[in-house]
Amino acid sequence: MPITICEVGPRDGLQNERTLLSTETKLALIDRVVAGGVRRLEAVSFAHPKRVPQMADAEQVMAGVPRGGGVSYIGLVLNERGFERAARAEVDEVNMVVLATETFSQRNQGMSVEASLRAWSRIARMAHDAGIRPSLTISAAFGCPFEGEVSPDRVRAIARQAVDAAPAEIALADTIGVGVPTQVTELVGAVRDIAPGVALRCHFHNTRNTGYANAVAAVSAGVETLDASAGGIGGCPFAPAATGNIATEDLAYLLERMGVATGVDVRAAAATGRWIGEQLGIEAPALVGRADPFPR
Amino acid sequence: MPITICEVGPRDGLQNERTLLSTETKLALIDRVVAGGVRRLEAVSFAHPKRVPQMADAEQVMAGVPRGGGVSYIGLVLNERGFERAARAEVDEVNMVVLATETFSQRNQGMSVEASLRAWSRIARMAHDAGIRPSLTISAAFGCPFEGEVSPDRVRAIARQAVDAAPAEIALADTIGVGVPTQVTELVGAVRDIAPGVALRCHFHNTRNTGYANAVAAVSAGVETLDASAGGIGGCPFAPAATGNIATEDLAYLLERMGVATGVDVRAAAATGRWIGEQLGIEAPALVGRADPFPR
């Protein structure tokens, strides 16, 4: 089975880097990613510009992305106002985030888990009406920076409530990079049981060097899509040494060499990873672009 | 099943770092590693001091290691002269390396694969006679920097010849960090079929971010021991950006959180990883020591 790599560098990656990039540079990143074979991207967030200044130019970015060729653009939305902006900007998909714990939900979204699930239902309905695919990400599903361990039952309960709104896809996110493969197998299995037939996606950070092992576990568990960012950018601005998302180029190398087709050109992706690191003035955490090509 | 983590930082790690450490600092590293719960270490190499100057003090290191407490020290040997030095230094085990390809074998050991297999047989006999456990590492089993892809049949043929000398253990090494989990499953299965009852060990480098996924695959395939280095040190001196071995602390975090006991104290290991990075004047590639403890 092929795997879709969903490029989240333009959104989750850049949102968590210290350096603010111009709309032009963001579009150059998206152009490179698409040229390298990626066909699905989380391109922007429609969060309030005061809360997430890195994404204030979401409309301008969406106006400039290369359309056609089967490329699908996701906009992150957290409320109806965000959805309306996303719809006007002609995203192909919207992704809404529900946090797995109360503390993180209050800190990140200023509302309870219950309230964000109600917002998800409203957004999903609006999306279906507008012909936009709605997906839901359950964040901090593998552990919470405030509450610690997250019970799989908590993730199950959220998935059960979310499924009524007919998500096109449910994603499990290891937001702080604490998860391990056994958790992946358990949580993916749990969500598949609750939402049979719904597409599944996983989102891993490599903060503790478990991200790629988790990706392999997710593929084994039958997940269709994995998030990754060019260069592995997205280190949290409050923990400068922490790495970000798993890297598109390293994930593509790993999967392609395992015989799992991704459609991504590993060398093009590695070049993009190095390039975005230069734009951000950092050494991107991805490793394939630093190593000798193999096989030559 | 618990997994043994074999600490290779003092040998494979330090041998491939630019900075030469004093015997005292090497012994401080070994003391820290043992205090952190590791019970098996590749401590030194008895290669010719002119070829591997980093290991010229092998005898002095072995004279100073903390003995007892069930700790087993491995010395790397490449020929009979090396074995004699190792035996005099009272190692508990010797490890011999056979390269999987002719080109790498000539470049690394100045002899053919066939010749190194004959040397292995002689060394294994001497070891058994001396009551020292002999293990064999098949290096570059997952790919060769000179010849590219390595056929599993080549690894099978080497294992078949090596098994006559009654190895206490066979190790599969991804010397240049190109391997992926599907290869691990295939090669471990192949060697287990050829050498039933012989303990198996795997040695991974994280050069292309596949090392930890490979470690999980090795555990699933029933391998008893995994090599790792404190801090993940061992980046090749000729490719400064490349990472070294998988890191002891990151591997211990991954396995312990999966419910696989290692006996290693993750926080102590992370502190040792940061410490050895400071001694070498580098930022060690391990990630657990840079991240927030989880769970707190």
Plain-language structure description:
The structure is a homodimer of 296-residue chains. By secondary structure, chain A is an alpha/beta fold. Helices cover 41% and strands 15% of the residues of chain A. The first copy, chain A, is built from eleven helices and eight strands. The A-B interface holds A 143, 145, 148-149, 176-178, 180-182, 206-210, 212-213, 215-217, 239, 241-243, 246-247, 250, 253-254, 257-259, 283, 286-288, 290-292, 294-296 and B 143, 145, 148-149, 176-178, 180-182, 206-210, 212-213, 215-217, 239, 241-243, 246-247, 250, 253-254, 257-259, 283, 286-288, 290-292, 294-296. Chains A, B: InterPro entries: Aldolase_TIM, HMGL, PYR_CT. Chains A, B: Keywords: Lyase, Metal-binding, Pyruvate, Transferase.
Entry keywords:
hydroxymethylglutaryl-CoA lyase activity (chains A, B); metal-binding (chains A, B); TIM Barrel; Pyruvate carboxyltransferase (chains A, B); homodimer; alpha/beta; 11 helices; 8-stranded parallel β-sheet; 296 residues
TL;DR?
Chains A, B: InterPro entries: Aldolase_TIM, HMGL, PYR_CT. 2 copies of one chain form a homodimer. The first copy, chain A, has about 300 residues and is of the alpha/beta class.
